[in-house]
Amino acid sequence: MKKIVDVATPAVCVVALVLSVAAISNTNAATATVPAPVVSSAPAGQPVDLTYAAEKALPSVVYIKSVQNSKIQTVEYNDPFEDFFSDPFGGFFGRGQGNNGQKRQRQVQTPKRAAAGSGVIISTDGYIVTNNHVVDGADELTVSLTDNKEYSARVIGADKTTDLALIKIDGKDLPAITIANSDDVRVGEWVLAVGNPLGLNNTVTAGIISAKARTLGANGVESFIQTDAAINQGNSGGALVNTRGELVGINAMLYSQTGSNIGYGFAIPTTIMNKVVDDLKQFGNVQRAMIGIEGTDVKNYVDAEKEKDKEVDLGTMEGIYVAKVVEDGAAEAAGLKEGDVITAVDGQKVTKFGELQGILAKKRPGDKVSLTYLRNKKSHTVTATLKNEQGNTKVVKNADLDVLGGSFRAITDAQKEQLNIGYGLEVMKISGGKLKDAGVPKGFIIQKVNDQSIKTINDLQDVVKEASTSKEPVLYIQGIYPTGKKGYFAVPLQNE
Fold first, then answer.
1. Active-site residue, from 20, 118, 133, 279
2. Positive/negative CA dihedral, 114, 118, 120, 121
3. Per-residue model confidence as pLDDT tens digits over 262-310
């Protein structure tokens, strides 16, 4: 079960944010999600009829089974008995560790794993939105519709920062859900959570919108819709719909002491979902706009200062306290300084950090926003041009191995024995590209890149993709020459 420990309640009980994937074998991962409600047309005090919403939404919500196949992996370990008999004094007299100071390696076979979650059909030609944690690491994805038809699915793109993924099945005239604007939902509205919890497919639970723009510290970008509709294992990636059966959120996690629903579920708003889906289709990864500050809710800052016996008067108790302005960021260029309080973006009032994140999650680098802020209790408004994580307004694209300009193969058993190493990729050929520019020679054996062990070509591909869209698009390569000498290279991926 994947758990993210959050701040304890006043009673000091530990609470977990639990991702809502149901494991079919091995560990079960609890699903968390919340429905986004729409204002009911029923008179005040009268019951709400949710049958229409359920009938409309159910066909659009699918069951997703993900499988990770059994694999052979090389793991490192220490042999305490060998170390003891080779040096019973534990290096006291300066002798090295057993096995020439090298860790031992052995191969282990991982078990085949299966897990389950939910997804929502958003187009008639087979695009489906789900959570990143539902499909992450999957070798096989099978999608089942409410009519029991099954399809193999492929991942179009995924974004860990928002915990969203876009997958595709080959189908026509599929029951796509109607997508509503999650900004329009209001606290107290009725909503339905639709998914496949605890192996009970096509399940609907009802509740209300409990809060908006929640931040929990689970993902990088958060502006959750909170609901008290029951969310359990298997609900991850399912739909939160209003009373018209329209999608307002993608269920993502629950807040629980036990791993089961206790009335606190959270969904990713459709305003964020739409932006992520568009970016994954168009660019292959999310174009994330950065304002270039570090901060917190004004109330949190004031409370923290009070604990230090300091009195603070910022002229407001709502907004975002700017604790740091990032060098060369959008906020610095616009003139913001540490100690300012952001109170509105594009004329929209922001009272807490989750609201700011929700607004920025819909933007792209290069977009301009109007920022209203307080400095010394006086209001100012400026225009800021948002930047990407690399500090410019260019489109950030995933790089692949072609950018390195080399070909690779896993080292042989003879190389492992000769060099006393357990894994690595040998550079077989250099044909121009980033490796040549950095001086990496043919025959060099890559063992680690950005502190991640490189055992297969897929490992290298994953690191290159991750680094290419990061704040610092550089590969820090560690390895060994054929002579046994260790080598280190820095390989920039960004063109000057």
1. 133
2. positive
3. 778 999 999 999 999 999 999 888 999 999 999 999 999 999 999 999 9
Query: Known catalytic residue: 453?
Result: no
Residue 267 dihedral angles phi and psi, to the nearest 5°: -125, 150
Separation between Cα atoms, residue 211 and residue 244, nearest integer Å: 20
Residue written as tokens 């260029």? 333
Q: Cα separation of 13 and 7, whole Å?
A: 9
User: Which candidate in 236, 256, 279, 459 is catalytic?
Assistant: 236
* Burial status of residue 470 (CB atoms within 10 A of its CB: 0-12, 13-18, 19 or more): middle
Active-site residue among 163, 228, 279, 340?
A: 163
Query: Residue 24's CB: how many other CB atoms inside 10 A?
Result: 15
Q: Which residues pair with 383 in a beta bridge?
A: 370
Here the tokens at position 382 are 């400026």
Cβ pair 40, 243 in contact under 8 A: yes
CA 15 to chain centre: 21
Q: Catalytic residue at 309?
A: no
Give Cα 396 to chain centroid, integer Å.
17
Low-confidence ranges of the chain (pLDDT < 50): 1-16, 25-42, 92-98, 100-101
Strand 113-121, strand 164-168: pairing? unpaired
In the chain, the amino acid numbered 348 is Q
Written as six digits, the tokens of 54 are 């359920």
Residue 380 among the catalytic residues: no
pTM for the whole thing? 0.74
How many CB atoms sit inside 10 A of residue 309's CB?
Answer: 6
Residue 339 CB-density burial (10 A; 0-12 exposed, 13-18 middle, 19+ buried): middle
